[in-house]
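I have been asked to look over a protein record a colleague put together. Alongside the sequence sits a line of tokens, each denoting a local backbone shape. Please read both lines and tell me whether the tokens look consistent with the sequence. Take the sequence as given and treat only the tokens as open to question. I have pasted the whole thing underneath without changing anything:
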Amino acid sequence: MTSDDERLARAALTHVVEPGDTHAGRWLARYGAMGFLDRLRADPAGAPEATPFPGTGEKRVDGWRRRAATVEPRRDLDAAERHGGRLVVPGDTEWPRQLDDLGEARPVGLWIRGPADLRTWALRSVAVVGARACTPYGAHMATTLASGLAEQGWVVVSGAAFGIDGAAHRGALAAQGATVAVLACGVDIPYPRGHAGLIGRIAEQGVVIGELPPGSHPTPSRFILRNRVIAALTRGTVVVEAEYRSGSLVTARAAARLGRHTMGVPGAVTSGLSAGVHELLRGEATLVTDAAEVIELVGDMGQLAPARRGPVLPRDLLGPDTVRVLEAMPAGRPTPLSTVSDRAGASTDDTLARLYELHSLGFVERQGDDWQLTNTPTEGGNLRRGGP
């Protein structure tokens, strides 16, 4: 169980160091949260160690020290509580242990809003990410995937951005399912502003998380660093529409490095919004088209997607000898039995038996002593050929 002092120190450090700072992660692992914070607050001239952070740039350390001198972690904890939030840190029962795979880039802690237990939800979660300026096709696919996953009891994780992220969250919520929004700002800051209502719904029905303390605003670098948390938290990442330069590809490649499943939904080859996804599919990603195919990869052994095949046509139900007689029938004219048997390579008696079978099924009709194909099409095309 995490002590109050450890929690307070980690709350302070979420204000002091930027998310994903591996230098800070190294000293945090070496000194512990309280020891790291004490060394930052100590007078450098009178510190027991001449250089407590060897190998870390002076400018970086100076920035840490300035922020450590002014941070008020109790105020941050109180602000989070006012918004129905809490701080979860390593050692808590709610801490998702898969985040430890990030090593020195592991979050110092996670600020959380929402009633659910994050660790339990994360054990059965999938990230659905993609382009902000998505197409209607992309939005449809993200919504359908997310609702399908939610209906099967999977938690949908995304970044609450416009486009694919928002569509994924809405799909899960529409299915009365579970969804997690990972923000690049404080959990009390609805960003983007246009998704204030959506983020509020997620906080009520799902979970909103972030590495930064209340009141923190996003920056471009924080969006990129946020993506490593999405990748590590989930069992796999699905990319729906992404250009060659896309934060979604950063998430997918981080997932691949962490040994998670990486998946992509194909799109039009003429669309720049699908170019990044197709590049993933040429490499480490697996092509998926629906929730069942995603679950086949990330789910338990034996959770296989249903077999895919086209419709069964009447011709598919015929035996091979009968098919051979059917294919021997020329189109558009009556044909003598002897001609059909010669073309089919069968005896006249056997050919006649097959023709009567085909007649009973509506494939052929008799014209005097001759036989010809019927003009009645089947579902999917001509009876004789099984297609147009």
